[in-house]
Specification:
Elements (H helix, E strand, L loop, with lengths): L22 H7 L3 H9 L3 E4 L1 H18 L3 E6 L6 H10 L2 E4 L2 H9 L7 E3 L6 H9 L3 E4 L2 H9 L10 E6 L13 H14 L4 E7 L6 H19 L7 E3 L11 H10 L25 H10 L1 E2 L8 E2 H7 L3 E4 L10 E13 L2 E6 L20 E4 L2 E2 L6 E6 L8 E9 L8 E4 L22 E7 L2 E6 L6
Parallel strand pairs: 1-19, 2-3, 2-11, 3-4, 4-5, 5-6, 6-7, 7-8, 8-11, 13-16
Antiparallel strand pairs: 1-12, 9-10, 12-13, 12-18, 14-15, 14-18, 16-17, 19-20
Helix pairs in contact: 3-11, 9-11
């Protein structure tokens, strides 16, 4: 097929961007279960793999144990709404990071002890603070106003004084809306000292956007210094939280860099353009638990003659507990999204596939971006195979012109056809339900939990009730 200017690339010119192979997901794709579930639900659905979540938690714990650092992991609940993750947290002693009263109630209701819950988010409601104090949760205080509300309106009957961290505004990101300036932190510390036993100031935290390692090491070292200073003031200050920001590696480096080099407007429906700077870094050379290892191995100045030391060394030497709040990284490989093709129409050089769901189920579209790891085409006889490249974009079932799950022309091994399934891989982290809505009176896609029994997947519905 010829290329017409930059508008209609030949099929062979459309760049591939497959997700990294994942044995757990591949086993589901080859099990024959997905067509049966699609028939049963009559619409799109997500499948969840709790054993992968458990493995990711274990990997983070191993990274801590290797360096002898005392740390606690809190799953950032906002990354996925399914109840199964909280059930796994309760079963494995993993903490939970929440930012709303509903999230806190679900964590407590699924068996996570209040002492293992960190309450983050800005300008928390009085009701959220009340329940958090009553349940002995650790509260990341974001402002002086919030601290004052805790000090002067602590609920009667609480088992102990409010447990708090003071959140620092990152100097590297002064435009962030989260945290307090250095001067505000000094004021907050003075108020904590004056409050005496009415508050337990357990340490400091920060919220840092992006995935870079050095800024996290630098900020963690600054929090350690603040802990040491706070202890001289009579405060507990024995822990720091460095939040999340542990990247996920979705694609092989060669595929990712080749895609970035090759992609152009003609590779997208209607010549849609995206700023590559808005793409998630779908390849990360240091990801997940390895990113934590890199943070712990980062060197920091100590202000002594001994010279720079690793962050792990300083945490051990100062007896400081490290708190983590990963979300996406604990969900790596833990789920995928499945849509059935309802129709296929041809355009010049590519096809438009319409599926039985909407782009509301792939959140990246709502951040002026695109979920780039390409979907897998699954037919009645399993994963599609073939030598040819059949490019197609993927549209949603709504009547909105902008409702495309995938604007780019994905090269499929054969021509998609009605009844086939498209499986978007590795969508559990922030993709599958951050922005879902029952638009057009379409039901929200159900979540199916796949447990491993005798080497084969057994399914059950996630027990979180539909809103």
């Amino acid at each position: 097929m010829a290329v017409t200017g930059d508008r209609t690339p030949a099929p062979s010119a459309v760049p591939f961007l497959p997700a990294l192979p994942d044995p757990g997901t591949d086993a589901v794709l080859d099990s024959g279960l997905l067509p049966e579930l699609s028939h049963a639900f009559g619409g799109p659905f997500h499948f969840l793999l709790p054993d992968r979540f458990d493995a990711n938690v274990a990997a983070f714990r191993t990274a801590l144990a290797e360096t002898g650092v005392d740390g606690r992991i809190h799953y950032a609940k906002k990354a996925n709404k399914a109840a199964v993750w909280i059930e796994r947290c309760a079963a494995t002693g993993t903490g939970v990071d929440v930012a709303s009263l509903g999230e806190l109630r679900e964590a407590l209701g699924n068996g996570v002890r209040g002492e293992r819950v960190v309450v983050t988010g800005p300008a928390k409601s009085d009701q959220l603070l009340r329940v958090a104090v009553l349940q002995a949760c650790l509260i990341a205080v974001d402002s002086l106003d919030e601290l004052d509300r805790l000090l002067h309106h602590a609920p009667p009957g609480a088992p102990r004084a409010p447990r708090i961290l003071l959140r620092l505004l990152p100097p590297q990101q002064p435009g962030s809306r989260f945290g307090m300036t250095g001067a505000e932190l000094d004021t907050a510390l003075a108020r904590c000292v004056a409050a005496g036993d009415a508050v337990r100031m357990e340490g400091f935290s920060f919220h840092l956007s992006g995935y870079a390692i050095p800024p996290r090491v630098e900020l963690a070292a600054a929090l350690l210094d603040r802990c040491l200073a706070a202890r001289t003031m009579g405060l507990q200050a024995d822990r720091i939280s460095i939040g999340g920001g542990f990247a996920v590696d979705y694609c092989a480096p060669a595929d990712w860099y080749a895609f970035l080099t090759a992609q152009r407007p003609g590779h997208y429906h209607a010549d849609r353009t995206f700023d590559p700077a808005d793409f998630y870094p779908y390849h990360s050379p240091v990801a997940g638990a390895d990113a934590l290892r890199a943070v712990l191995a980062g060197t920091t100045a100590t202000g002594t003659d001994s010279g720079p030391r690793t962050l792990a060394d300083r945490l051990r030497d100062t007896g400081t507990l490290l708190l983590l709040e990963p979300g996406r990284a604990l969900l790596d490989g833990a789920g995928a999204s499945v849509f059935r093709i309802q129709g296929v129409k041809d355009r010049a050089g590519y096809a438009i596939v319409t599926v039985d769901g909407t782009s509301l189920s792939l959140s990246e579209q709502w951040f002026n971006s695109e979920f780039l790891p390409q979907p897998v085409l699954v037919g009645a006889d399993g994963r599609a195979s073939g030598d040819a490249a059949h490019p197609a974009c993927v549209g949603g079932v709504s009547c909105l012109e902008s409702d495309l799950l995938t604007w780019r022309k994905v090269p499929f091994p054969r021509r998609p056809q009605p009844g086939d399934l498209l499986v978007y891989p590795n969508t559990a982290g922030y993709q599958m339900d951050s922005n879902e809505s029952p638009f057009h009176e379409l039901p929200l896609p159900p979540k199916v939990v796949l447990d491993r029994t005798d080497g084969r997947p057994r399914w059950r519905l996630d027990r979180r009730p539909a809103p």
